[in-house]
Inverse folding.
């Protein structure tokens, strides 16, 4: 574990990014997102992923459901072939404006040192409507060299939230 500023988050807004999930979304998996570089997960090459509004990605191209209730990892109830940035029953609400309450992706850098980031920006827990005092922001960075980072960016929830973080 480390703390401090990460360049890929500090400059996220200055780089071209894609809104993958504009609000509102609840219990949704994105369409298949191709990876911009070769990447291995537990030794197997993966070429893309699906994003869940519930704080994880899955490399299972056949996945069709976003699973909202987190479990202690490892778990037979968890999505398969997944990285959990903050697995919790989350959603986005309409009306929050750009750079808030949405899920974006961005890739930058030059081969062989590119970074691909999935960024959950100001998402909110189940049963809570969006406000600046009720949101969570976190990111998952996939490094071209094979590593990944989960970064907790900000949390301002007025309700208790507990998510699962890890890989399975």
């Amino acid at each position: 574990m480390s703390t401090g500023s990460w360049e890929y988050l500090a400059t996220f807004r200055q780089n071209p990014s894609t809104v993958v999930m504009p609000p509102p979304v609840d219990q949704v998996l994105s369409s298949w997102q191709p990876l911009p570089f070769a990447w291995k997960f537990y030794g197997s090459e993966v070429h893309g992923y699906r994003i869940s509004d519930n704080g994880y990605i899955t490399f299972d191209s056949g996945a069709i459901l976003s699973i909202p209730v987190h479990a202690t990892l490892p778990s037979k109830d968890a999505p398969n072939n997944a990285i959990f940035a903050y697995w919790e029953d989350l959603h986005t609400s309409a009306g929050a404006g750009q750079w808030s309450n949405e899920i974006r992706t961005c890739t930058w850098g030059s081969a062989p040192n590119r970074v691909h980031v999935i960024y959950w920006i100001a998402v909110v827990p189940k049963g809570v409507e969006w406000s600046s005092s009720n949101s969570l922001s976190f990111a998952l960075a996939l490094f071209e060299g094979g590593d990944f980072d989960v970064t907790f960016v900000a949390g301002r929830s007025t309700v208790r939230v507990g998510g699962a973080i890890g890989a399975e």
Observations:
- The chain is about 0% helix and 45% strand.
- The two ends are 19 Å apart (CA to CA).
- The chain has a mean pLDDT of 87.
